[in-house]
Amino acid sequence: MIPEKIKAKHTPMSPKSVKFPAVSSRSGAEPVTVVDGRDRPLAVMPLAEVHRQKLYHRCVLVLVYDREHRLYLQRRAKSKSAYPGCFDLSATGHVQAFESREDAGIRELSEELGLTAARLARLASFPASPQTAFEFSTLFSAGRIQEEPRPNPEELDGGFFAGREDVEDLVEHFRDLLTPALLHCHEAGLLFSR
Q1: Is 142 inside any structural domain?
Q2: Which of 39, 75, 91, 191 could bridge across to 108 with cysteines, CB 3.0–4.6 Å?
Q3: Is the per-residue pLDDT at 3 higher than 60?
Q4: Is 79 a member of any domain?
Q5: How far apart, in Å, are the Cα atoms of 89 and each of 56, 58, 73, 83, 179?
Q6: What is the residue range of 140's domain?
Q7: C-alpha span between 96 and 124 (Å, rounded)
């Protein structure tokens, strides 16, 4: 049964019956899958509406390292509605409707950093809650990359590679400039564990 707040705006869960125009992720019109509290698909809705109604949905977080095993931290664009100008994990984003989590991670790497990856290693999953903006989050690693990230200026205000000590200094002295996802992964010991 579909909850009342979704009924009026839901799209049936059938990839063949749903046609979406190409939309920018910045428009808020990108279609995402609304899920229940156990991460089971319910409906497809525009991201902006999902956020407005605080509905459960999915996101991905991707870690990228250089040859020295330093982690790339992106700086979110000041135009972002959530955590503008803050430092975040290498690439992050929402899982679009009918997209796998791994495919979403690969797409976000390309869209945000201009990087290609054939596969990602799944490191962890986090349950949705008000603290995660109602997002079921999946953390991936792209491993060590050979190419230099090319941050998309529509998504990011640049970024840099940071070693373990650099991240610890950021957490200690500039905590308010870091996203909750970055802080959570740091505190869980997931950033430099592999």
Answers
A1: yes
A2: 91
A3: no
A4: yes
A5: 21, 16, 5, 12, 8
A6: 57-187
A7: 19
